[in-house]
Amino acid sequence: MAYDAEETRRRILGAATDEFSARGLAGARVDRIAAAAGCSKERIYANFGDKESLFTTVLNRSFVALGEAVATARAADSEIESVTGFAVAMFDHFADNPVNQRLLSWARLEDTHDWHASFAVLASVREASTAELLRLGAGTAPWSVDVIFVLVLSIATAWSQLPRVDGVAGAVPDVDEQREIVRGTVARLLT
Fold first, then answer.
1. Which parts of the sequence belong to the HTH tetR-type domain (predicted)?
2. pLDDT at position 14, please?
3. What is the distance between the alpha carbons of residues 131 and 91, in angstroms, rounded to a whole number?
4. How many C-beta neighbours within 10 Å does residue 120 have?
5. How many CA atoms lie within 13 Å of 157's alpha carbon, on the beta-carbon side?
6. What does the pLDDT read at residue 51?
7. How far apart are CA 69 and CA 89, in angstroms?
8. With respect to CATH, is domain 50-189 assigned 3.10.450.50?
9. Where in the chain are the domains?
10. Quick one: pLDDT at residue 77?
11. CA quadruple 58, 10, 161, 135: dihedral positive or negative?
């Protein structure tokens, strides 16, 4: 069987995503990533350099996925013809991909990530998102579109920031109720 470099890279990125989202950069182990990917540590280093560069690649992929999710939602669903629809698309992305929120949380908590290495990707997602928000009429709100983007992102990810409260009925609304709360909160924010 011939060596497939692209398939190996895909397996490494999948294993690294799982490892980093579960343990963060500091707790992640390259040997566990290699074992899960079915390759050697040397193959990881050859493809990505060091562990920090691999983390940056994984984190940047999560940022790209967020941008693509909002763009895909707009193309597939007419509801995204409003800022509330934009917020719901972001909420749905993070509800469907909690790993992406965990990766971002680890990067913020550990405070060692080289944000400059993510700047181009972040700038691209921010630019596309703020352009979309302007198109949807957010420019008429009392704040800048960047402030609205931060507020909408914060509202859309609010439940991923809360620990689950087990044993307390109704403590955490179900996903459908959370989505409606996001929709209503963003609508009120802009009125």
1. 6-66
2. 97
3. 19
4. 11
5. 19
6. 96
7. 7
8. no
9. 50-189
10. 53
11. positive
Q: Secondary structure of the chain in the HEC alphabet? A: CCCCHHHHHHHHHHHHHHHHHHHHHHHCCHHHHHHHHCCCHHHHHHHHCCHHHHHHHHHHHHHHHHHHHHHHHHHHCHHHHCHHHHHHHHHHHHHHCHHHHHHHHHHHHHCCCCHHHHHHHHHHHHHHHHHHHHHCCHHHCCCCHHHHHHHHHHHHCHHHHCCCCCCCCCCCCCHHHHHHHHHHHHHHHCC
Q: State the 10-residue block means of pLDDT for the chain, 191 residues long.
A: 81 97 96 96 95 95 86 58 81 90 90 85 79 72 80 85 59 82 86 72
Residue 62 confidence (pLDDT): 92
Q: Look-up: residue for tokens 């990067």? A: 107
Rounded to 5 degrees, what angle do the CA atoms 55, 57, 179 make? 90
Measured between its terminal Cα atoms, the distance across the chain in Å is: 61
